[in-house]
Design a protein that fits this description.
Order of helices and strands: HEHHHHEE
Distance between the termini: 20 Å
Shape: globular
Number of domains: 1
Radius of gyration: 12 Å
Helix content: 40-55%
Structural class: alpha+beta
Largest sheet: 3 strands, antiparallel
Number of strands: 3
Strand content: 15-25%
C-alpha cells in the first residue's frame, strides 16, 4: 500500500473527519480495485478479514505520515453492511 502513498493521502484528505477504517476501505477499494482484488486473492480463508486487518494496521503504523490520529474503537457498517468494530481516525 505504501507505494500508493500520494493517492492514499488524497483519499484520506477527501474523507469527512472523523472517519473510520470502514470508510477508508470503501474509498480505497473503489480507487484501487485491481490492487484490492489482488490483495484479497492472496488468501483462501477469511480474505476480507485479513486484508482489512492489513489496511487497518497500515493506517495505525503510518499515523504520523498520513496526518491522522487514532480515536479508539467504534462500530460501523463494513462492506457487507454488517456492524463491526473498527478504528476511528481524526
Amino acid at each position: 500500500m505504501s507505494e500508493n502513498g500520494q493517492a492514499i493521502q488524497r483519499i484520506i484528505n477527501g474523507l469527512p473527519r472523523p472517519f473510520d477504517s470502514h470508510d477508508f476501505i470503501r474509498a480505497f477499494s473503489r480507487e484501487f480495485q485491481v490492487d484490492y482484488v489482488r490483495l484479497l486473492s492472496q488468501y483462501t480463508e477469511d480474505p476480507f478479514i485479513k486484508v482489512h486487518g492489513q489496511i487497518g494496521r497500515f493506517l495505525a503504523d503510518n499515523q504520523n505520515t498520513l496526518n491522522i490520529l487514532s480515536q479508539g474503537k467504534v462500530y460501523s457498517k463494513n462492506i457487507f453492511g454488517e456492524e463491526s468494530e473498527n478504528e476511528q481516525w481524526l
